[in-house]
Fold each of these.
Amino acid sequence: MAVLVTGGAGYIGSHTVAELNEHGFEVIVLDHLLNGHRQALFGTTLYEGDIADHKLIAEIIKKHAIDTVVHFAAMSLVGESVQKPLDYYEANVCKTRALLQTLAELGVQRFVFSSTAAVYGEPVQVPISEQHQTSPTNPYGDTKLSIEHMLRWCYNAYGMHSISLRYFNAAGAHLTLPIGEDHRPETHLIPLVVQAALGQREHVTVFGEDYETRDGTCVRDYVHVMDLASAHRLAVERLRHQQGVDVFNLGNGKGFSVKEVIDVVSRVTGRTVPTIYGARRAGDPAVLVASSAKAKEQLNWVLRHSDLETIVSSAVNWHSRHPGGFNE
Ligand code: UDP
């Protein structure tokens, strides 16, 4: 029996593929390589194609006796989703619907879904638990929530068991393999600050310093990508014996402000980070911090690398060795 990872050549996908391989799973990757990188996979079988391609998915499932799907393939930029909502509903909701249809027809009954903290919207209570209301403030979060809803009904109708993992801010890079963050364009804070510190970009702009937080900048919960990968592997294992539909938050439970991130990057690199202070970014809540108590208790999830120094050091290591991302 094997695991199909869609979007397995992407950032979190490729770290999860490495984790599954390390734990002895047979892994097959499906990725259209528009955002993913072939170089992020090390000998894992890769099919280049689309999750909505019924014929291809059916072929892969039969050929490799796939019994579990870990689904990352998606468009995932909050800002872009506000500009192009229909592209997001098409790529995320419509295509995942097509994928689920194929899985239901072929009797694949285990599904791990890459969801997001963006399903919560503006938090009413921090830290955010899984019981918190879901009220996304952007199309990206709404597409992910729609898929979570589809999964509930797929269990009801087809007996498809699923676990949705709602992550907070994924960051860092693999500690031993040459894989890390390579988004084009890059929009995430930690890679931008690290690249500015290393002289790979001119500066970083802090989006707003008038929030009601300890230093006026937004507070986020950064979690190491390898810890996220281990949570996906634990979810795959759990679905071997656990039935039904479940949802887990994945965060480290500690919030860091934008200024604190910049300070840690300065400390780790020994360099000053060229910084500009700019306006708020639309749609940014002041504070997003997870309660991951449920994942720790029920998935036995252990955070091993998510202190901010380790996250930043691993990112510094990746960006200094790969200034052009996977191209260099
Ligand atoms: N941020 C920033 N400058 C940037 C990119 C991000 O100040 O160039 C801030 C952003 O406002 C947010 C935090 O850094 O408070 C994390 O943003 P990111 O885009 O990495 O993740 P998000 O929280 O949007 O998922």
Note: The chain has two domains: 2-171+223-250, 189-220+253-327.
Amino acid sequence: MTKGIKIVTIGGGSSYTPELVEGFIKRYDELPIRELWLVDIPEGQEKLNIVGALAKRMVEKAGLPIEVHLTLDRRAALKDADFVTTQFRVGLLDARAKDERIPLKYGVIGQETNGPGGLFKGLRTIPVILEICKDIEELCPDAWLINFTNPAGMVTEAVLRYSNIRKVVGLCNVPIGMRMGIAKALDVDASRVQVDFAGLNHMVYGLNVYLDGVSVLPQVVEAMADPSNAMTMKNISGLSWEPDFLRGLGVIPCGYHRYYYKTSEMLAEELEAAETKGTRAEVVKQVEKELFELYKDPNLAIKPPQLEKRGGAYYSDAACNLINSIYNDKRDIQPVNTRNNGAIASIEDDSAVEVNCVITKEGPKPIAVGDLPVAVRGLVQQIKSFERVAAEAAVTGDYNKALLAMTINPLVPTDKIAKEILDEMLEAHKEYLPQFFQPVEA
Ligand code: G6P
């Protein structure tokens, strides 16, 4: 790769793109990017033009010889790419709003990654990512696919199971956010904090925490028990934890665990929000509008701080650190979504897990943790079953599998409610779910 690196970002018109560009600029000395291709679909053309122009200004301001290309032609972009990052949203934020709102009618949290919303986001996204995988196989077979598209765990699972791509890594900013939150609660610099992460995407636990190499897990549990340390992300309520529950759990949950351990309180908050300020998708739409207004300013040549209102803080650090470590064979430790390969004993070897890995030029090598603690093992396995059945439904368009996935999701109370939600959501997302609406043969 001495010629310089070619990166392709699918969903390049996303408001998150300046994060990525900033990350590449910061690391240019180690990560000499020659070409950055931002790819989008015709509906995203306007956003692509705005964000692409900002990306060009950022590169120019930094005085770097990175060529930024904007295109709607995915296949042209992919030719000979070294890294392909994916950050697209099938159906855009309107589809997310439906994912969040429809289940609420049935007294169920929608949630775009964990609940029925996550199921539908997976059903819409997986066929598209598998098409992208076919293009990668043909046009840039040596490239690494770095997926950010949610539900990132389910998408990684689907790529591992249903495509020929093996150089795939699923990424999320939740572990970085947890590490930063812990550092803040301990009032120390994050560089001194290490966390043993293990679980699944948005279902990841800190099994141990170290400050300068010495375990401080009990102190972190106590810090988390303090309601003033919400330790959450912009997109998730910071409802406080029951301190004795945390002490009993004995490991560090992530922000998304509130959906499972505090279901009714979270539901009450979401119902109220839906009535007042809108669901998260509706709030984000407003934030995006403001961001794109800023991005349009020809004098803006940096990532505006307002981007931090989105849940994806540190997103570029996760992506750029990963790409940097693969490219430079850094062998540092990063939490990513990858094939388990026995790292977590209670999950199948060929399933995707989110776990600390040594990042090499051959990709992530997961670090073995053995069995998960009994307190969390069952929930992790249940979510893995949900992800696997959902991925199968996405690929086959099998209604019964989709109903099964909906019903075994822990946020859905009964098979009947699951069916009602499923039917309404299938209809609402029909245009993005052709696999469920094949004409019946005569
Ligand atoms: C967190 C999650 C991401 C998710 C994002 C949503 O960062 O880790 O997977 O996409 O929040 O943020 P938003 O601002 O879109 O609600």
Note: Residues 95 and 328 are 39 Å apart (CA to CA).
